[in-house]
User: What shape does this take?
Amino acid sequence: MVGVTVMALMGVVVSAGGGAGGEAYAAGERGSRWAQAWGAAVQQPVEGDVDDVPNWSRQGFRHQSVRQVVRVGVGGGRVRIRLSNRYGKTPLRVDGAVIARSGGGAQAWPGTARKVSFRHAGSTVIPAGGEAVGDAVTLSTSPLENLVVTLYFAGETGPATFHRVGLAASYRADGNHLDDVSAQAYRQSSQSSYFLSGVDVSGPFRAQRNTVVALGDSATDGVGATAEANGRYTDVLGERLVAGRRNLGVVNAGIAGSMLLTSSSCFGEKGIARFRRDVLDRPGVRTVIVELGANDVGANWSTGPCFPSSHKPVSARRITEGYRALIRAAHGRGIKVIGATLVPLSGYPGYPGHAAKVERLRTQVNHWIRTSGAYDAVVDFDKALADPAHPERPRPGYVYEDGLHPNDAGYQALANAFELSVL
Assistant: This one.
């Protein structure tokens, strides 16, 4: 039996000596392994008007079915789902779950629906703060294919653990419509995902670990990308991997507004606190891309309801110490770490004042990322997005209307900045 030790690294708690990234092998399938084909970083419920992204997280669900569309990055012969009640105050009862191929929108493809059980039961109760992993079901999937996951809640869920900026549709229907093929009952939609934290696929993958996780903020989450168009850099990177016949799943663990060192009631737990859940505990993780710190820099002197009273300005040294903590935790699991430089921040009205100090701090952090040698590899997001004439600003053709976040062309540039061999 392998001994287990626990290391606490600036709040990153890691069990050393266990399997990398959760269960890597598919039970009962010789030579088959699990990869996470889709995933999301969950966050606590927030009001529907944050960043003008309406959602149902505060009200939750009662006697309703929720159908969610996910695009899988890898294909295989079996699938399973992961559900999270991380921020629930009471146990969450899930009265049924079904996964199927997508027929477009809220439609399921006829003949492909598979009922999901939980420890061989048709329903499950997830404790407050807990997670449930569905039993594997046989469903052949292909890379970049859309699936629909439908959950039914007979009672009241209370406020929902969710992911806010999903950029893919979730649909709601009153009553039990688990088995509906048509979309007729699903008359309401949202751009967020609810309770669903992962979809795993098993297959005879050549590599022993098959999951790449992108941990980040809004530049990873995809703010500024066209909704329903799979335009985030992680989506485009996944397409590049498929074209290059690299059978790796790319999981987007970005949360818009996320910070490395500060938790926020609006933008989720700090990166060093969520690293284990959002990276280390996913199945078959081989590589993590760390794109965090831009909000620690840009909002370093900010105050307001989204920031805790303990929020104080941080130095470049504190930020880089946070990076080192994540790197040590990942290396403890045999996971490669790629550091992404901080994107240009100048001119964004969401970071009022202190422009010179923001740029100075960003430059110091980026210098460390590029030159410290702490990361296994570096991807230069700053260089990919910067305007050559004004490198503190994003290139005009690559930026969304808010002047900060990439648009679809900008996200394409970020995806193209990767050497696929380092993944």
